[in-house]
Amino acid sequence: MRQFGEKIVRGIFYIEDGRFIEPPYTVEVHVVHDEHIAGIIALIDRFGEVYAREPGIVVHRASVPEDALHALLKIEIWQQFKIYASVYDSTILPQPTV
Questions:
Q1: How far apart are the first and last CA of the chain?
Q2: Predicted structure pTM score
Q3: Where are the domains of the chain?
Q4: CA dist list (Å): 89 to 49, 51, 52, 96
Q5: Fewest CB atoms less than 10 Å from the CB: which of 10, 36, 67, 86?
């Protein structure tokens, strides 16, 4: 699921912005319960743009105005399953240890 999510994220950036996500930028995909990240979901819903390839996939993307490659994304698949992703400059924000 993580590879699928990363492919969707990279595709949205390429199709909508004509940009590749390359180092030092990193894509991380997260599979979590909505209640654990309610604050992040609120940010994505409030500031995000919606990209729909309905009925199967809807992507919400909230980007930082100063650098559109920094973003939080919510990916909904068939209105049944959600995954979340973040794109960031790994030289500014080091990778978290899991």
A1: 17
A2: 0.87
A3: 2-89
A4: 21, 23, 26, 13
A5: 36
